[in-house]
């Protein structure tokens, strides 16, 4: 039995919740009667409720995010119907800002903001039987130097099997209107000595997979250098993920990044748009020349694998403008280009554009845009399918030579837009398309534009570049019998980026 259960539904099994571990670490004398239970979205909510309630908790704290909000609402209903005496406390970004677009009325308490201190105080009052807190508790920002850090509460199982999430700071100095981080523009840092001490403890326990959740890892160069130097001293294999701003890579940082081996460093680069007028509309500062230079450097002089973000549906951004962004990014970088759909999150100031640009969003998570005055609902649906097929075909790394041929005339967006519409007509789906089936679709589509044997050979090179794959049956009918099928093995960790450099 445990008095307090801390839980959430992660997007994937490999993920861990840093927020739950912060709450757990700061429960003080209540910690010995608390337990963390993590689940995965799209699981049976009744089974989750069963596993929570078998501990007979008096309090259940649930972290709520955009990806699990609907599941959490159902989970809360189940818990309260089965065990109405159990106190349910919600926290996290999805309940911290109004309007709440998912019904959480059955929850007993909601903590908005940073809950490390407030959650402990609430639990103590409830367990002591003298709680006088309001249902919605507005929690102030905590002092990072005065709370207990959560890293000792990653289990050995977590370290061996899951991503280890860490943060050296909170806040973001920028004011991009689509992002919740813009609400907290004041940066708060841990002491770099304290932070590296925690990283080293995790390293000594065997952690090798670190994902930094800081929104702007490279904003404070002295901290970035200290962290990169720490890992460069290690001889073992490891994987690091950082979110970076694209225009702040001074020479001293470049020299360090160049030293990382392939497969060890991943950078999530927030571009969103390269249209200066659109960027101005959403309060995003762009230094285009710096961005171009840095992307070129990262692509040509480092082994860093990049995820570069572009958004469809920003206020005043047309499809044609988005297409120009994509065409330009393709020439600047060998990284994956993550095509995202604009979402209106509660707490952001995006709603000020609603009337001006006719912005219409779904009322259900993830609150994605449905249409605006510049992009119709039908076009937006096409663009959502474009994004899905782009991920399957281009970002997967499975068809590098094929897409290079498709884009050889420089019309990246135009050509892939046409392909994506054809793929949807042909497949009537954007999911559960196998590698062999997609290869056959690409052959069918591109055979109308290129020599059949040429495209067959290129698709075969793509499909067979990872050892152990079998030749798709449709290609056996086309490729000459004396074709040399021996292909070099390319490791999964870095195949996407390395192949683009060939």
Describe the structure.
By secondary structure, the chain is an alpha/beta fold. It folds into three domains: 4-140, Response regulator (Rossmann fold, 3-Layer(aba) Sandwich); 154-351, Alpha-Beta Horseshoe (pyruvate-formate lyase- activating enzyme), CATH 3.80.30.20; 396-502, no CATH class. 39% of the residues lie in helices and 15% in strands. The protein contains 19 helices and 16 strands. The strands form four sheets. A six-stranded parallel β-sheet has the order 2-1-3-4-5-6, sandwiched between helices. Helix 1 (18-25) crosses helix 4 and helix 13 crosses helix 15. The chain is globular. The chain starts with a strand and ends with a helix.
Brief sketch in words of this structure:
The chain has 502 residues and is of the alpha/beta class.
Give the topology, please.
Blueprint: E1 4-10, H1 18-25, E2 34-40, H2 45-53, E3 59-63, H3 69-82, E4 87-91, E5 109-113, H4 116-128, E6 136-139, H5 156-161, E7 164-166, E8 169-170, E9 188-189, H6 192-204, E10 209-212, H7 221-232, E11 239-244, H8 251-257, E12 265-272, H9 276-281, H10 288-301, E13 305-312, H11 319-332, E14 336-341, H12 354-357, E15 360-361, E16 369-371, H13 377-395, H14 400-406, H15 412-427, H16 435-446, H17 452-463, H18 473-476, H19 495-500
Parallel strand pairs: 1-2, 1-3, 3-4, 4-5, 5-6, 7-10, 10-11, 11-12, 12-13, 13-14
Antiparallel strand pairs: 8-9, 15-16
């Amino acid at each position: 039995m445990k008095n307090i259960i801390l839980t959430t539904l992660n997007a994937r099994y490999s993920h861990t919740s840093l927020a739950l571990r912060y709450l757990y670490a700061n429960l003080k004398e209540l910690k010995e009667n608390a337990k963390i239970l993590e689940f995965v979205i799209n699981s049976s909510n009744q089974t989750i409720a069963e596993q929570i309630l078998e501990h007979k908790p008096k309090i259940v704290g649930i972290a709520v995010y955009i990806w699990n909000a609907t599941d959490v609402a159902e989970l809360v209903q189940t818990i309260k119907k089965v065990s109405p005496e159990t106190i349910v406390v919600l926290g996290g970004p999805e309940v911290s800002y109004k309007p709440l677009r998912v019904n959480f009325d059955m929850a007993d308490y909601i903590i908005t903001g940073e809950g490390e201190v407030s959650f402990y105080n609430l639990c103590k009052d409830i367990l002591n039987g003298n709680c006088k807190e309001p249902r919605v508790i507005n929690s102030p920002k905590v002092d990072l130097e005065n709370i207990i850090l959560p890293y000792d509460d990653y289990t050995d199982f977590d370290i061996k099997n899951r991503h280890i999430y860490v943060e050296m700071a909170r806040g973001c100095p920028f004011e991009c209107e689509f992002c919740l981080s813009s609400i907290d523009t004041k940066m708060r840092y841990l002491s770099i000595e304290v932070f590296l001490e925690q990283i080293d403890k995790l390293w000594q326990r065997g952690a090798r997979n670190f994902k930094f959740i800081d929104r702007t890892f490279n904003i404070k160069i002295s901290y970035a250098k200290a962290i990169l130097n720490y890992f460069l001293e290690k001889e073992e294999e490891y994987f690091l993920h950082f979110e970076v701003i694209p225009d702040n890579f001074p020479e001293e940082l470049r020299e360090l990044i160049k030293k990382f081996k392939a497969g060890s460093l991943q950078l999530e680069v927030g571009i969103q748009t390269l249209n200066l007028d659109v960027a101005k509309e959403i309060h995003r500062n762009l230094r285009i020349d710096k961005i171009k230079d840095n992307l070129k450097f990262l692509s040509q002089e480092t082994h860093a694998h990049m995820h570069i973000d572009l958004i469809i549906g920003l206020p005043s951004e047309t499809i044609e403008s988005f297409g120009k962004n994509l065409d330009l990014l393709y020439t600047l970088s060998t990284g994956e280009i993550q095509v995202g759909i604009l979402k209106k999150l509660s707490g952001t100031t995006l709603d000020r554009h609603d009337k001006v640009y006719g912005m219409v969003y779904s009322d259900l998570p993830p609150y994605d845009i449905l249409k605006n005055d510049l992009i119709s609902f039908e076009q937006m649906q096409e663009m959502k399918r474009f994004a899905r097929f782009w991920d399957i075909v281009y970002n997967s790394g499975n068809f590098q030579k094929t897409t290079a041929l498709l884009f050889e005339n420089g019309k990246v967006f135009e050509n892939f837009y046409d392909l994506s519409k054809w793929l949807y007509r042909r497949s009537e789906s954007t999911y559960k398309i196998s590698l062999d089936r997609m290869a056959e679709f690409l052959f069918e589509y591109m055979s109308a534009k290129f020599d059949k044997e040429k495209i067959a050979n290129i698709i075969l090179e793509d499909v067979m570049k990872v050892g152990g794959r079998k030749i798709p049956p449709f290609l056996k009918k086309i490729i000459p019998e004396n074709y040399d099928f021996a292909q070099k093995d390319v490791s999964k960790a870095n195949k996407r980026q390395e192949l683009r450099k060939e």
